[in-house]
Amino acid sequence: MGIRAPRRHQIAAVALARKLTVLCWQLLTKREDYLWGRPPLVANKTRAMQLQTGHPQQKGSRRGPAYAYNIKALRDREMVIAAQAEQSYKRFVVIRLAILALTRMWNGPGCKIFLLLNKG
């Protein structure tokens, strides 16, 4: 049992890495944004990376795209939207799995035998 336990973690890590790789590949090849992304958070992280790589600081009274992340009310509203998006994604996955199960059941040998027997 001691040898098999670490393998489960490796399998889970590989599955997660594959899922993320497929997600990134789909987003890059289709040139789409992540459907459940949080734009102000992404803008804040992008700006932080730009500053770390040596981009000049923007001084003045003009607000940048990451400004919305500094306002607590907007951040809280975005968290509510993110929670709703997570629920939407969970429903999407459940429906997708149900459709997949029905498709497999419909295309399975039991259904084909039933259709052959009831052909009239």
Describe this protein with a few key phrases.
120 residues, mainly alpha, 2 domains, 4 helices, elongated
Protein described:
By secondary structure, the protein is mostly helical. The chain folds into 2 domains: about 1-30; about 35-115. The protein has helices at about 5-30, 40-50, 70-105, 110-115.
In a few lines, what is going on in this structure?
With 120 residues, this protein is mainly α. Helix content is 72%, strand content 0%.
Order of helices and strands: HHHH
Helix proportion:
over 70%
Main sheet specs? none
List the total number of helices. Answer: 4
Return Rg in Å.
Answer: 23 Å
Runs with pLDDT <50, length 5+? none
Average pLDDT for all residues: 79
In percent, how much strand structure appears in the residues? under 5%
Structural class: mainly alpha
Oligomeric state: single chain
Number of domains: 2
What is the terminal-to-terminal distance? 55 Å
Give the beta-strand count: 0
Q: Per the principal axes of the C-alpha atoms, what is the gross shape? A: elongated
